């Protein structure tokens, strides 16, 4: 394979000022930690500056000009998110601070009233802690059981276990990642959703690693809850989205009490506001929600199928080159069609932090650690892994820089 | 790679063949500690006759820096007086492996280097306070351990 860049990275790279950075004794920055957070294009950075320079105001209450502008921009983002995900009713879009808060909201406001002793909540071995710990807390509190779908040697889910759990008739909720943040495995969510629906179980999908990287059509999926974060898709930190069916949201108790989520408050009773405000207590992250709009515009302009194709090309290229590095073990499907632009790996007998430090000295930023997925680390029988993750601006030359650094690791540790 | 060296021959060698690696059954001092964000996890076992360190071992998993620093620490405190060990400073340990620069250059990796010293200081503190009922002898060890990194 030739080391040429596909058109997408050359088309958008100059929009990302931070990619011009030199680090560690004047090395060009090679940013391969996109599963943790992506860089921001100038359009998003300018939107934040513009908001604070020209519009800053609280929303939903005051009638002055700035408040109306800010409210309008905030609600326009909600509509854009709905359109981006093919959601018909934008009132089903709840702004939260991130995927973690979205899942905790469901665990609290839906879980407390719908999961009882003897019920089952199902999750998987490749979940992020944010899709495990809230369910541990819920099941411990209610006396329900928490069950895991195991992964096979290719890092794919053994879905026959889901059938067994569902056959008990006790499963109330299945909470599952759309794409694994460590292995990159793409879950067959259509099949999982069909199984859950047939068994009458609710289904929550953690889409933090999916929405930024591929076309997600919620209307077509037919799940019950879907969660993701803005900062992993060119947007600012501190903004996440929970989508849930209106019928569910209407029956759910509020998550937090406070301003904006109320209709009327009296000394001993309160009536709650309509959707989505019932779940957005307090002043939301107005500025960041508004400039999330610019990130959605940016991705819409590129087209999510182009994003996905770019990542398939890079992943295939990287997998082939990495398979030739001495002593390197790659986890997960090792198949660019079955995984997102995420590759986890280790050197036999070299701690991932030593790998990351050597690679970092060459300006290459990868992640090392347990990736908030210690259950998966236990399964893989490792304390940690290294992870390289790609995005729209990643070039094949950057993958080459990673490979060169990995070869240096092999040399330093005499593998 | 550029800048101050980390992965010297000595560190690679220690990480491959750590010194005093193993477990002491029923030791007088046992301390487990870990760096949750990077996954280094060690158990330090120490025996003492009340004035001197008579035996020291460790086991666990960690990166090359953690393994090398823990190895060197166990070598440096073997047969030393407890009073001396109580006053052991991080600079002495880092200098032994040429890692003094980590204090300035890598606030993340310094934790790998000093994990064992933190475990040692906490361990001796507990020994004095819990086993010997001697709070005075324990001195500031707890605070020292907590402020290492």
Automatic annotation (TrEMBL), chain B:
Residues 7-130 form the NIF system FeS cluster assembly NifU N-terminal domain. InterPro entries: NIF_FeS_clus_asmbl_NifU_N (IPR002871). GO terms for biological process: iron-sulfur cluster assembly. It holds the Pfam family NifU_N. GO terms for molecular function: iron ion binding; iron-sulfur cluster binding. PANTHER family: IRON-SULFUR CLUSTER ASSEMBLY ENZYME NIFU HOMOLOG (PTHR10093). This is NifU family SUF system FeS assembly protein (IscU, nifU). The lineage of its organism: Archaea, Nitrososphaerota, environmental samples. The gene is iscU.
């Amino acid at each position: 394979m030739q080391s040429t860049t596909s058109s997408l990275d050359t088309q958008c790279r100059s929009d990302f000022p931070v990619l011009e950075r030199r680090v560690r004794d004047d090395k060009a920055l090679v940013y391969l930690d996109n599963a943790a957070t992506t860089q921001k294009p100038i359009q998003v950075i300018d939107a934040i500056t513009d908001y604070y320079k020209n519009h800053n105001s609280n929303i939903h209450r005051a009638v002055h000009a700035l408040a109306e502008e800010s409210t309008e921009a905030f609600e326009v983002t909600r509509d854009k998110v709905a359109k981006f995900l093919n959601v018909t009713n934008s009132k089903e879009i709840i702004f939260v601070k991130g995927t973690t808060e979205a899942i905790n909201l469901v665990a609290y406001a839906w879980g407390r009233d719908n999961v009882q002793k003897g019920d089952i909540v199902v999750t998987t071995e490749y979940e992020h802690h944010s899709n495990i710990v809230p369910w541990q807390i819920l099941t411990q509190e209610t006396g329900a059981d928490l069950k895991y779908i195991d992964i096979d040697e290719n890092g794919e889910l053994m879905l026959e276990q889901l059938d067994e759990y569902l056959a008990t008739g006790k499963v109330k909720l299945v909470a599952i990642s759309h794409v694994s943040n460590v292995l990159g495995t793409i879950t067959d969510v259509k099949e999982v959703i069909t199984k859950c629906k047939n068994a009458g179980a609710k289904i929550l999908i953690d889409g933090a690693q999916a929405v930024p990287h591929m076309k997600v059509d919620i209307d077509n999926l037919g799940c019950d809850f879907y969660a993701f974060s803005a900062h992993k898709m060119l947007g600012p930190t501190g903004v996440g989205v929970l989508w849930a069916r209106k019928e569910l949201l209407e029956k759910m108790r509020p998550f937090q009490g406070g301003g904006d989520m109320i209709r009327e408050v009296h000394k001993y009773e309160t009536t709650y506001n309509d959707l989505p405000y019932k779940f957005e207590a307090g002043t939301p992250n107005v500025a960041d929600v508004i400039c999330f709009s610019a990130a959605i515009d940016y991705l819409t302009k590129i087209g999510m199928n182009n994003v996905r194709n770019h990542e398939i090309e890079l992943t295939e290229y990287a997998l082939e080159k990495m398979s030739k590095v001495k002593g390197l073990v790659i986890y997960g499907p090792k198949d660019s069609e079955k995984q997102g632009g995420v590759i986890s790996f280790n050197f036999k007998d070299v701690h991932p932090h030593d790998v990351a430090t050597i690679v970092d000295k060459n300006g290459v930023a990868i992640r090392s650690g347990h990736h908030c997925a210690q259950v998966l680390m236990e399964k893989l029988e490792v304390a940690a892994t290294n992870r390289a993750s790609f995005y729209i601006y990643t070039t094949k030359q950057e993958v080459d820089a990673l490979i060169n650094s990995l070869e240096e690791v092999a040399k330093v540790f005499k593998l | 790679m550029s800048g101050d060296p980390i992965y010297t021959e000595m560190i690679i060698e220690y990480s491959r063949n750590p010194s005093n690696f193993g477990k002491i059954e029923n030791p007088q001092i046992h301390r487990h500690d870990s760096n949750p964000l990077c996954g280094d996890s060690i158990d330090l076992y120490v025996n003492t006759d009340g004035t001197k360190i008579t035996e020291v071992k460790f086991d666990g998993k960690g990166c090359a820096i953690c393994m090398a620093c823990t190895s060197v620490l166990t070598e440096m405190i073997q047969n030393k007086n407890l009073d001396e060990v109580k006053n052991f400073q991080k600079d002495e340990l880092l200098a032994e492996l040429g890692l003094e620069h980590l204090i300035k250059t890598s606030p993340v990796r310094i934790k790998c280097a000093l994990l064992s010293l933190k475990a040692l200081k906490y361990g001796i503190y507990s020994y004095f306070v819990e086993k010997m009922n001697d709070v005075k002898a324990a001195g500031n060890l707890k605070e020292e351990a907590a402020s290492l990194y």
